[in-house]
Amino acid sequence: MTILNRNVFGIPTTSIDIKSIYITYPYCIQKFYQQNSGLNEMINMKAGKLLLFLLCFIAISNTVICEAPPTCPADLDGGCGSDDSGEWEGEFFPGIPKIVYEGPKSKNPLAYKWYNANEEILGKNMKDWMRFSVAFWHTFRGTGGDPFGAATKMWPWEDGTNSLAMAKRRMRANFEFLEKLGVDRWCFHDRDIAPDGKTLEESNANLDEIVALAKELQGTKIRPLWGTAQLFMHPRYMHGGATSPEIGVYAYAAAQVKKAIEVTHYLGGENYVFWGGREGYQTLLNTDMERELDHMARFFEAAVAYKKKIGFKGTLLIEPKPQEPTKHQYDWDAATAANFLRKYGLIGEFKLNIECNHATLSGHSCHHELETARINGLLGNIDANTGDPQIGWDTDQFLMDINEATLVMLSVIRNGGLAPGGFNFDAKLRRESTDVEDLFIAHIAGMDTLARGLRNAAKLIEDGSLEELVRKRYQSFDSELGAQIEGGKADFDMLEKKAMEWGEPKVPSGKQELAEMLFQSVM
Ligand code: XUL
Ligand code: CO
After folding, report:
1. Sign of dihedral through CA atoms 251, 257, 260, 265?
2. Does ligand 1 come within 6 angstroms of the Cβ of 321?
3. DSSP characters for 17-63?
4. Cα–Cα distance between 47 and 274 in angstroms, integer?
5. CA-to-CA distance for 362 and 329, rounded, in angstroms?
6. Is the bond preceding 235 in cis, omega lying within 30 degrees of 0?
7. How does the average pLDDT of the chain come out, rounded?
8. Which residues pair with 133 in a beta bridge?
9. Which residues does 379 contact at the CB level (< 8 Å), separation at least 6?
10. Which pLDDT value is given to residue 24?
11. Nearest CA to ligand 1 atom 3
């Protein structure tokens, strides 16, 4: 609904809009708390509570007490732009400096302590090992809403609409964020960055308009790590996209992916992702699984053909996930996805995008999924995040565990890096983290944790003791018979003869605790 006027808190005064009131009222309280931190104790007292209530009451009655939130209201009578075009070019993150490396002793939350972009580790700059990327959908579309509660994040540049003007303003915020963070890559879904239209043509036109702006703002340095199509939010995709039993949906999904590959290519994207959130089933009783999987394979074949047709050189990535939102997704885990690719002759055309929280949802560790992808030649990209063992669903938290990060980086080093893939922060702030600076702090901490993992993994590799432990465990195969077995030349007759000649084998210790001790020694 259109709001004609707002008071200094952005609260509508000439028409009632419940959502705006919801958004702006807590902002006043929040700001009051922040700006008067010394009053926190007082607020705990009765008099303090009364005073706070009075102040906010007066504020809502249009009296100037609190400072106005720096909103860019939809009606744009002024403030963020002269018209509805979203052309505002002000600063979105005032007071946040360019984030620089200050070293491990720094106590500055807005500085890197471990991530030193141009420092060389194992023959490669840290930034080339990491190839970090910001996920547009979490960082710029995440609201903090959950199934039990409404949005908690009131970013100053948001006006509560999904308009084209808002999409443009948000895109400008994205690029200021990337610049300040010193990150050269970003990832997006088509519908995160531009609003859905009434028709496919209108949606495509919206996307073109936003992509043109993104192209301009990218300059020469910034590129998408990957793009993707959102085939899960709209109700038309409730039974899936490529696996929907309805042919019209299959065609619509194909058209959407076609366009998303085009714009990813146009923006210089290095990869394209397929995450099949709704490609799966809720019950096998109403599902022809074989037919659905055949359809999905045909869909991927068509994507490969189209990619080649338009000259897109980026890697196509499948992102496994076992469930959520679907009860059982077809790309359950790395091994399932690899088997699917092999069955349908697609193995050379795709790699995998391993997400750590998806790995744990499927009952594996992230390290297991990375190693499964790596040894199959399929490790293409990592969606860097983590879950919470006590919660158990896809919480998409920033990865802050140094042990976990070290294991992740061991796989990445063994893979020779991830390029043209990288680390995409498919991670969101907790619902309760509501300050703009939290967006920076979360990314800085996530980047520092992985950088620390890289440093630790490099130490482990340079030290060599763990590698030596593993080598020793298999050294009996470094023999003539071992070579015959590994070369596929040892038949059962030959092996039986040896078993009888050698008698009961001597089985050495697995040295697990020693391996764990060596691992911990580099932390
Ligand atoms: C959902 C998820 C997606 C994909 C892209 O769990 O990870 O954001 O990364 O569609
Ligand atoms: Co993901």
Report:
1. negative
2. yes
3. -HHHHHHHHHHHHHHHHHHTGGGHHHHTSHHHHHHHHHHHHHHHTT-
4. 56
5. 10
6. no
7. 88
8. 185, 424
9. 351, 352, 354, 370, 373, 411, 415, 418, 421
10. 33
11. 275
User: What is the number of other CB atoms lying within 10 angstroms of the CB of residue 471?
Assistant: 11
The H or E element containing residue 445 is helix 436-463
User: How far apart are alpha carbons 440 and 425 in whole angstroms?
Assistant: 12
Here the tokens at position 33 are 């708390």
**Shortest CA distance to 245 belongs to which of 233, 235, 237?**
237
Around ion ligand 2, residues with a beta carbon closer than 5 Å are 355, 383, 426
Ligand 1 mean position, distance from CA 360 (Å)? 15
Whether 28 contacts 60, CB under 8 Å: yes
Res. 286 pLDDT band, cuts 50 70 90: very high
Q: What is the pLDDT of residue 293?
A: 98
More confident residue, 13 or 484: 484
Rounded Cα distance between 323 and 278, Å, is: 9
pLDDT at 39: 37
Q: Which residues pair with 272 in a beta bridge?
A: 227, 316
pLDDT of residue 392: 87
Ligand 1 neighbour 192 (Cβ under 6 A) = no
Query: Is 374:414 a contact under the CB 8 Å cutoff?
Result: yes
What single-letter amino acid sits at 128?
A: D
